[in-house]
Amino acid sequence: MPNIDHVGLTPGQVQSFIDDGFVRIENAFSADLARQCRDALWAEIGLSPDKPEQWARPVVRVGFKSSPPFVAAANTPQLRIPPVTAALRSEGERRKS
Question: What range defines the domain where residue 83 resides?
Answer without folding.
Answer: 11-96
